[in-house]
Amino acid sequence: MNTRLLPYVLILPVTLFLCVFFVYPFILVAQEAFVADGALSLDNFRRVFGHWKFPLSLRNTLLLAAAVVPVQLGLALLMATMVNRMGRGRDLVLYIWTIPLGISDLAAGIIWLAIFEQSGFLNSMLHGLGLIDRPVNFLSYQHPGIVFLAIMLAEIWRATAIMLVILVAGIGLIPKEYYEAAEVFGATPWKRFLRITLPLLRPSLQTALVLRVILAFEVFAVVAALGGTLFPVLMGQTFVYQFELLDRGAAAAIALVILGISIGFTLVILRVLRVPKGARI
Amino acid sequence: MFPTPIERTARHWQILYRVGLPVALVIWLLPLLAVALTSIRAQGDIIAGNYWGWPTDFHLVQNYTAIFENTPIARYILNSFRVTVPVVIGAVALSCMTGFALGVYRFRGNLLLFFMFVAGNFVPFQILMVPVRDLTLQLGLYNTVTGLALFHIAFQTGFCTLFMRNFIRALPFELIEAARVEGVSEFRIFWHVVLPLMKPAIAALAVLIFTFIWNDYFWALVLTQGAESQPITAGLYSLNGQWVAQWHLVSAGAIVAALPPVAMFFLMQRHFIAGLTLGAVK
After folding, report:
1. Statement to judge: residues A168 and A31 lie in one domain
2. How does pLDDT run across A193-204, given as a tens digit for each residue?
3. A112 and chain B in contact, CB less than 8 A
4. What number is the ipTM of this complex?
5. Best interface-test mutation with B: which of A9, A12, A18, A35 has the largest number of B CBs within 10 A?
6. DSSP chain B
7. pLDDT above 50 (res B280)
8. pLDDT value at residue B82
9. Considering the entire predicted model, what is its pTM?
10. Which of B113, B114, B127 is the mutation pick for testing A, counting most A CBs within 10 A?
């Protein structure tokens, strides 16, 4: 086969496939959002923004991301540096920490539901310790803080490992000579972490953060399992508009809001953690 | 030598590791252990609120038989396999081709196409819910395993291509050039030279995609309904509504749903972690 032609032949199937199943839906969603009653308008967005649940779900989504992602970042960094210093047992520890990645977000939500539920583990433990007289319904509207905490814990448990794995690989790529030199000059471990690991880890931090933040804005199954209607989030609202209110325009509009937020945060992360030219390893 | 092995660090660090790490690991696994323990309890324990104590009776066989006999959970699992396996094969095959083209050849639009794949990775796919559902309805693929699989392939291909392209870029290019000098056709180079070298990447990607697709709940909910086509994640949600407060059954169901990817994980851990890191860092 002709060398000039071959790359195009190889790429053709994917391109066709993606045009039909990815690009085309993308155009449709934009069209759906900006067209109301057959004319170009912002009515869908107005209707969405005007609904009382919109500010609430926007706030919840952002708040959850703001609470979960920094904790995950700190935890993943801590775990990655720990794993990095281990010889024997490194793989086992890494394996145990990554197990939640193998569990679906819904199953993880249900597992944490079993813990926080009225007849669940936490209640039974508190009751056994004599701290409460009768079971408390933690996941109810009277305890918004606990609902938030439960969702937060479930998300941290479920999704920290993806950052961990990326950071472990990134730390492995940092040349050991830097650390040796720093050690010779008497830099403390904390200083070495601050001055060598963190700056040189920027590319991995970028990837890990962008990936995690985008996934955090899409959070759905865990919230559905634990919070239900008590804790509306943007993705859940898209779902409600589409399947319960049968308002496709509004669903598309919220979808574009999520896309906008994701792109905005991605750009900010890429900008803040940018690697200066010529400073690559 | 760096990093300093734990054995050679100061005494208090060693103790911290020896004690802190196992504790951290147990806490990490606690939710899973709790669920596993609950899944073998008898209903009496659940009603009596005995969650933490030793089970009064072991109902391992009863509970797991019960969920398989009284619910379509076997059907759900079969559906999951029917979705996941074709997606793994399709996405890996497509991305091998595209990755080879993008990694080996210089042609017009190469970089542009590559950046499209990178950018496509960072689009939240779930926002495509509305049109994707319409499309499946129009194509007559709504509530079919085929429809679900086709869209999964479309959403995974960007990531897979990026991954494969980076892997092929890292291969020694001299091999391909040597083969060219020998007059081997381009297709045979792809098939006999590059593809065998890509085995580790293919294995890593296959495990990764398997877990991603198996665990998908969102698209299963959007594109399917009913036991004839729903995969296990969506099935588990309906069963959860049916088993109100019967935590031993809910737990057994969750364990069954999690077993295939976790087993896959256990068997292919090395590949899985290699997979995540290869795709993410380069």
Report:
1. no
2. 888 888 888 878
3. yes
4. 0.74
5. A18
6. --SPPGGGS-HHHHHHHHHHHHHHHHHHHHHHHHHHHHTTS-HHHHHHT-SSS--SS--HHHHHHHHHHHSTHHHHHHHHHHHHHHHHHHHHHHHHHHHHHHHH---TTHHHHHHHHHHHHTS-GGGGHHHHHHHHHHTT-TTSHHHHHHHHHHHHHHHHHHHHHHHHHHS-HHHHHHHHHTT--HHHIIIIIIHHHTHHHHHHHHHHHHHHHHT--HHHHHH--STTT--HHHHHHHHHHHTTT-HHHHHHHHHHHHHHHHHHHHHTHHHHHHHHHHHHH-
7. no
8. 93
9. 0.80
10. B127
